[in-house]
Design goal:
Chains: A alpha+beta, B mainly alpha, C mainly alpha
Distance between the termini of chain C: 46 Å
Largest interface: B-C, 77 and 87 residues
Number of domains of chain C: 1
Number of helices of chain B: 5
Strand content of chain B: under 5%
Structural class of chain B: mainly alpha
Largest sheet of chain C: 2 strands, antiparallel
Number of strands of chain B: 0
Number of strands of chain C: 2
Radius of gyration of chain B: 27 Å
Radius of gyration of chain C: 20 Å
Helix content of chain B: 55-70%
Oligomer: heterotrimer
Largest sheet of chain B: none
Strand order of the largest sheet of chain C: 1-2
Structural class of chain C: mainly alpha
Strand content of chain C: under 5%
Number of helices of chain C: 13
Amino acid sequence: MSTASDLYWIDSAARAQEQAEQLAGESLQGERMRINMGPQHPSTHGVLRLVLDLDGEEIVDLWPDIGYLHRGDEKIAENMTYAQFLPYTDRLDYLAPLANNVAYAYAVEKLCGLDVPPRCHYIRVIACELARISSHLLGIGALAMDVGAMTVFLYAMQEREKIYDMCEELSGARFTTSYTRIGGLSRDLRPDTFLPMLKAFMDAMPAAIDQIDGLLTRNRIFVDRTRGIGILSREDAIDLGVTGPVLRAIGVDWDLRKAHPYGAYPEFAFDVPVGTVGDCYDRYLVRMEEMRQSLRILRQASERLPGGPVNAPEAKWLLPEKRGVLTKMEELIHQFIMVTTGINAPPGEVYFSAENPKGELGFYIVSRGGGTPHRMKIRAPSFVNLQALRVMSRGHMVSDMMAILGSLDFVMGECDR
Amino acid sequence: MQVDELGVYMPVGGMLIIAALLGAAMVLIPTLLGMRRTHNAVEDSPYECGMPPLEEAHARFSVKFYVTAMLFIVFDLEGVFLLGWAAVYRDLIRPVSEGGIGWPLLWGGVIFLLVLEVAHVYAWRKGVLDWAPRPRARKPALEQT
Amino acid sequence: MESSLIVTVLKMVSVVGVVLGIVTYTVLAERRICAWMQDRLGPNRVGFGGLGQPIADMLKLLFKEDVVPHHVRRVYYILAPILVLIPSIVGLSVIPWGSTLGSMQCVIADVDAGILLAFAVGSLGVYGIVLGGWASNSKYPFLGGIRSSAQLISYEVTLAMSVVPVFMQAGGLRLGGIVEYQTLHGWLVWQQPLACFIFLVSAFAETNRLPFDLPEAEQELVSGYHTEYSGMKFALFFLAEYSNMVVASALLVTMFFGGWSLPFAPFNAPATSVAVGLLHIGVFLLKVFAVLFVYIWVRWTLPRFRYDQLMHLGWKAFFPLSLANIIVTAFIMAWRAQ
């Protein structure tokens, strides 16, 4: 007869391994309790499910179980034009949709050999860095909430609200922005309204970061809860393909903005903060410093924002002006083709990855020509980073699990795709 | 006088009754006023984050909890002795000439506390007070998976 | 005899009533204060400025479906919240709420071993919590229950040890006597700051308040031992927690902050008229509210300890410190007496 634990067992290989370990005598450590954590749990950040093996409060082993938010984005992409897929990228890392839009647009532009004007590059940088701050604010707030400091979370959310206001000003939508287009942007930013908002935000943000800093960085309880917890070794991290702040917290200086510069990033001066140990506290510190560096980039970008058009000059890749569509035959036909069959992308394979708040977000596109990708693979940083969870949390206590989950800062929308 | 000394405890008994009645009433009233009971599978299954439970909830307690209970009995009972000593300390610490006991009272208490501390240090050194798991030898990541 | 019985019953009923009122409004105050700290509004719709919220909550809970899931151990499951509530209310009986009101003592049971009774009764609360966690027959409550038992009994020890110097100085265990001592010699918090601090922190742990709210740590154990509870039975746990807070605050005020007294007339001697007696009660309640505010303030400021850190703090820091404090106090008193 199969019991519930058989039915909900995840991985027969893991089970065989466990039985082998038990035979080897490890089971003498005490009676274990197997417990579900998630998908419906206050601190698994969405719908991650973990199966924990506990000895008292100690985590003997755990198996992450993902897929509760799987929508088949990669398959969906094969059935629609490049432009139509853009809104789906909003739903990957839904805490930083702007950055996903930008990464996807660059990937398709790389396939098509398009280059966008400098102003577009700059605005994309602004969008990416706003997304980074927004994502890190939530990551830090959630980490703080997971270790019990709920007020920090609400302070962080308050700042994020301003970023949402700016998203609205920028793209018209607060949450699912879909701001970029292939070869440009959905619309130019308005210097008279957006830039003052950005300036006010940049002026207020350092104080907000300092406030969080004051509540957490030297807080003895917070430090005790995070320092030395969830240490990931350099070798493990590189073997597992971990990227983003989690990797940099170990001291690996790997930031795609510097390592494989794209867009306008080479034109800005900023530092890539790295940690030393790679524990939860380092990950927190790296995120805090990255927010400050993002502000630095934002300041430079807004000061040096070039003029000119935001869309690529090659008209055949882009939707025509609405006024033209309404008055000219050729424009109407062009619009019709763009909407129904999409751009005529050349055959080929490209991989483009961008440094997203969570790590390296990559799009691997196989094209056989025409307006629809033949195959698309999304390299989601949350998915890859989550692999490190088991290595990081074995041997820690249940409470440490919360700090580790919080400091990994994953988003299940991106992980499950 | 004997009766009175017990008599002062009577209100405590009264409070006990009031509290019990209050608790019982608060549990009973909703059964009368509340919605009729419905039974469904979700309501009747233990909460385990929205998944069917993996196994029975009653595992054995970790032995650490028993040790904590023993520590509690040892130290809390000694604490009770100490309270008696403390209650009379101010009056009896006066020199013998003034009707007290003087220094012997202090030394008695100090020796008692030192014995207590020896037990505490013993438990400490034995690792009874260590709750964090000992760091296990970590295998490289790829062997684990 | 007859009249004193009536007076006692009146005192009991009024204390329970007033404390339950304080408790429900402390819940509201907590929600409003935390909202204020977090730049939110909090419940402000029911009644004037949200003052009707506790009543609305209570009515809602009374009319809710009384869920007893199938998998629980029924009798113990129902018994547990009552067992949690009883000690938290019985503990109120030894607290001197004021000096005198006419010829009446403002304490329900003026017993000699007042503090012993308070601690003994308070430690009974752990039974209800463990029983609730165990009877729920579910893993998160089970973990919460055993966590809680270890935490409560560990801090019970430091709680009892930390106040020993107070009794040495006051020369007795009667809480009323401690207040009278303080009217003559000043508040004990100045003479025993360490004891006061340890008592305050241990009281946080005993009442399961953040940073020690591990038994019900939402981010870890969902709701800890009351995960499987709902409706009024859940509210009883809640009520007991806040009532314990009131008891702990009242004990703290009584032992370290002079109880009903203030260091000037007419607050530095037992009341001679009813009006002054009422003022004394008011002063006491104000002090209790101040401590309750500290509870709320700390909760919304600090993160939570990890389980082993909490046990270390109790056993490896506070316990030896309390012992040292007792010895130092004993030496100083002996030296002064000679």
